[in-house]
Specification:
About 70% of the residues lie in helices and about 0% in strands. By secondary structure, it is mainly alpha-helical. Helix 4 (about 70-90) packs across helix 6 and helix 7 (about 125-155) packs across helix 10 (about 190-225). It is flat and about 55 Å long. The two termini are about 40 Å apart.
């Protein structure tokens, strides 16, 4: 893996994570992260749309007039969202019904149009694909963490209704962590999602601060030894 590829992946997964740093797409992030399965469904759908739209925008970037750029990008994104929505209706219908309006609302996700405009329209297909996948996977990872936290605290389970995502016969994937658990209502409600996201953002900031301090100490150590 060369440095350019590593930097793109690092930006999408950590340094410029759409949910923890840019704070974009929070509406579906908070609304759908009640369970791991719901979060995974929306995360995969968003990643597919982001990767596909980035590649398409990169391919047509030299063919579109500047004044028509944004409308064309929105049309591209809407086309991919429609394709993903039809695929979910065909193969994951029950999950599609649960996610509801948040699938077509991917069109309005700020991060997708932002990456199309700021990155894909200025880079080649390979770099645009990597950026779309990295940003989408980073978004999905935060969705899954939120879903796991809220599902464990709210229901005492993990991967409940796994059959919605993985098909019939996969009910055994559901893990019951606490027997006779009455649930924690705050974790299921929107305020619980805000609190959990705030803790994740705080955790990332703490990690980044400690890494920065270690870097400074590592750089300073040889200088001190020379003096």
């Amino acid at each position: 893996m060369n440095n350019d590829t590593a930097n793109i992946l690092k930006e999408g997964l950590w340094n410029n994570n759409t949910a923890l740093v840019q704070l974009l797409g929070l509406c579906p992030l908070l609304a759908v992260s009640g369970t791991v399965v719901n979060a995974l469904g929306l995360g995969i759908a968003t990643t597919l749309v982001m990767a596909g739209s980035n590649v398409t925008v990169s391919l047509i970037r030299n063919l579109v007039r500047p004044e028509l750029r944004i409308p064309c990008f929105v049309l591209v994104i809407a086309s991919f969202v429609t394709a993903v929505e039809l695929l979910m209706q065909a193969f994951l219908y029950d999950l599609y019904l649960i996610l509801g309006i948040f699938i077509p609302l991917i069109v309005t996700n700020c991060v997708i149009i932002a990456r199309a405009e700021s990155f894909a329209s200025k880079n080649n297909v390979w770099r645009s694909l990597l950026d779309g996948l990295a940003m989408g996977i980073g978004f999905t990872a935060v969705l899954l963490l939120l879903g796991a936290i809220r599902e464990i605290l709210g229901h005492g389970t993990l991967l409940t209704q796994a059959e919605l995502m993985f098909g019939e016969g996969t009910q055994w994937l559901t893990i019951t962590l606490f027997d006779d658990y009455r649930g924690f209502l705050l974790a299921i409600l929107p305020p619980g999602a805000f609190l959990a996201l705030g803790l994740l953002i705080a955790g990332k900031n703490v990690i980044d601060k400690r890494r920065a301090q270690r870097t400074v100490q590592t750089v300073a150590a040889p200088v001190e030894s020379m003096t």
